[in-house]
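Collaboration report, partner site 2.

Our partner group contributed sequences for two proteins of shared interest, and the home lab folded both. The records are reproduced in the order in which they were received, starting with the first partner submission.
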Amino acid sequence: MAAFSDLFIFIILLGLGYGFGQWAERRHYRSIHTREKELAGILVFAERLPPPDPKFKHSSLVGGSVVISIDYFKRFVSLLRSFIGGRVSSYESLLDRARREALLRMKADAQAKGFQNIFNVKFETASISKGKGKQIGSIEVYVYGTALGPGN
């Protein structure tokens, strides 16, 4: 009987983890979509060198970073997936949110400095807090580039 109650509690906690994790992820995606529309005027290029343009008089290094943690339900699913193999889609959404959030923070930095174009954009990613079994607990994404424009 004790094993049944432990299993029941585990399933309840797993369900709560799923529900709250999905809610937080949807809320974050809504925030990302809103800010992407607001910052759509700031152009981002991976090209190393900008085209020669006399309006590019000032430059500045701009960057954005974010640390996002995985929720317990996704961690449990990824643990199960590691036994089977294949794509770990729970980490894909984590990386997608982190990259987009870091990019938005870099664009906001450029906007605060009065720039409209960012060139030579690079992404750096690091996993943080590997726990038991070397599973990723959270990731950091840092994005940086050279902002060019009339400046402040």
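Second partner submission, folded after the first:
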Amino acid sequence: MFNIFGQSKDKPNDVKGVRDALLRALKEHLQKAEGGEGRNIKGINLFITAPTADKHLYESAVHHNEPELFRDEIQRIADDYDIGLPLTWELEVVFTDEVPSEAIPLNEVDAAIFIRTKAHVIQRTGSAYIRVLNGKAEQNEYTITSEDGKLNIGREAKAQIDGGFYRINQIAFPSDTGNDANRYISRQHAHIEWNNDKGCFMLFADEGGIPPGNKVKVRIAANETLIKLHSSLIGHQLAEGDQIILGETAVIEFSYKGGIING
């Protein structure tokens, strides 16, 4: 166990010293939530800005290949000081040259910290594109961004739904194209929206895209697993190359552009 309570005037130059300094700094920030106030903490973002020559020290210090070990170290500090972190709190360690303005620089080390709560979040941005692989949409490819809000997917750009209201589908598959795949897409099939906490785009099935209606299926590119969305409340975190099947045979592909996530 490292001595996380000692002080050092100079930046550490070995793995033990870096880890010691990081944990000491994290302890000081977490102590502000003593007495169980840590239950409002959703996660900790640690931004490491070490020069190339020292990067290997920081990677070893935070157990870069086994991040749960460093999380366990932080959890022990939280337990010792009755901070009351929730079971679901997340640790995100990023090696970067740029630090968000909301993050607080740490003394002794080349790093900054941001503690996320429901009311205190880093505004992230991202963009991606949707490519139509089968079926006929108004465009072959759509660029989407985190500023777009909710992006509806369905048959017709302006579709009348129950109650006489109209739904605007930003990614629309017209019914008059003669393409058979479009016939099985619901007017309110699905939507995509940005999740700022996770820094990613999420796919949700809408009323017409959940059983017993026309379904939404996703082929996950990372492991070629096929999943179905059974609820309009539980979304799927989209990843590079995921393919989304709308209805029977219409297929769209999701991709981030060049690791675009910022923040």
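Feedback sent to the partner group on the second submission included the following. The domain at 15-117 is CATH 3.30.2320 (hypothetical protein PF0899 fold). Residues 1-8, 258-263 have pLDDT under 50 and may be disordered.
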